[in-house]
Write a structure and sequence with these properties.
163 residues; mainly alpha; two-stranded antiparallel ribbon
């Protein structure tokens, strides 16, 4: 008889040499001492956490709402090339929808707090893993997911998301 835990997750996919060479995967430490895994950087981390049941559905919804506010507010990096020879000052062409999204997002960040805000931006908006964020902030890598859960719970309370 097999345990339900072994059938819970999809089998690990081993990346090919081309994908590893071109940076599609990054090697990460696992909770098991001495073992590492390759994480696909092209997959949205909130989807991974929801699939592995690391976060709840309401936490996932709060993270997706934050990500849509992030996109709507215009804070993503722009990849367009400007053909202008001289640029004077900063060009802000934000519409009213962009400003409303930015204000709502900043209000949520005020409620969550500064450290948890950095965790939310890293995981929900920039696509980093919670453990790599914790490592950058000199926290224990296993505590990164706890920070993320706490921040997403505060967003669920703020936005009244209940599933």
């Amino acid at each position: 008889m097999t345990s339900s835990r072994s059938n819970k997750h999809k089998p690990f996919e081993i990346p090919n040499k081309y994908a590893m060479k071109h940076g599609d995967y990054v090697l990460e430490e696992t909770p098991k001492a001495g073992s590492r895994r390759a994480r696909n950087k092209q997959v949205f981390m909130l989807d991974t956490y929801k699939e592995k049941e690391t976060i709840t559905l309401s936490q996932y919804d709060a993270g997706i709402k934050l990500y849509t506010l992030w996109l709507r507010s215009g804070l993503t990096t722009k990849i367009t090339i400007s053909y202008e020879k001289i640029r004077f000052g900063r060009i802000n062409n934000l519409s009213e929808k962009n400003m409303i999204a930015r204000q709502e997002m900043l209000k949520a960040f005020d409620i969550v707090g500064i450290d948890l805000t950095h965790c939310l931006i890293a995981v929900c908006c920039l696509g980093e893993s919670a453990s790599s964020w914790a490592k950058q902030k000199s926290y224990h890598t296993r505590s990164g997911i706890d920070f993320l859960r706490l921040a997403l719970d505060r967003l669920c309370i703020h936005w009244k998301i209940n599933n």
